[in-house]
Design brief:
The protein is mainly alpha-helical and 175 residues long. The protein has seven helices and three strands; from the N terminus they run ααβββααααα.
């Protein structure tokens, strides 16, 4: 997916890399608090479905984007609020629906259609499986308790993985 650029570090809402880097759900990312961040360990704690918490690693690029946002956030009205994301117009939190709208705006500005948080979740699972990642680990990272979800999300990568394996094995090429 082409990178979407935010309006600067003070722009409202999370940087799109937070979605792609973690596979987080819109509500999980949208409801983050300052206490959910651990930038020393490069992790965030998501509060998932079914009151299941999980800690997920973020990459250095995403950590830098969050650090820039936190610096800009510290000088804004509402900086004392516990919720991480602040609205652009005042001292209140940015709701997940506001993030959803912002992502659509960023996508439109970049010429990328159908931008939504779940697209990055799907891409995260797809790339995980393509890289040979373990299904059980993927379930832990994305907060799934059923085997149905990795099968559903992994189906799009299955054909690509099969073709890569076929090329690697080169069956019939030595005849």
């Amino acid at each position: 997916m082409r990178e979407l650029d935010v309006r600067g570090p003070a722009g409202p809402g999370p940087h799109p890399s937070l979605f792609y880097n973690t596979g987080g759900r819109l509500a999980e990312v949208g409801n983050l608090t300052l206490d959910d961040l651990d930038l020393h360990a490069d992790t965030v704690r998501f509060h998932g479905k079914g009151a299941k918490d999980r800690r997920v690693r973020i990459g250095p690029r995403t950590a830098r984007a969050i650090s820039r946002y936190l610096r800009a956030r510290s000088g804004r009205r509402g900086a004392d609020l516990p919720r991480l994301w602040l609205s652009a117009r005042g001292a209140c939190r940015l709701e997940p629906n506001g993030i959803k709208i912002r992502l659509k705006q960023l996508g439109a500005a970049a010429g990328v259609p159908n931008v939504h948080a779940h697209r990055w979740r799907h891409s995260f699972a797809h790339e995980w499986k393509l890289a040979g990642g373990d299904t059980g680990d993927l379930m832990l990272l994305l907060g799934w308790s059923s085997d149905d979800m990795p099968r559903h999300y992994g189906a799009s990568a299955a054909a690509e993985r099969a073709q890569q394996t076929q090329a690697r094995l080169a069956i019939g090429e030595r005849v």
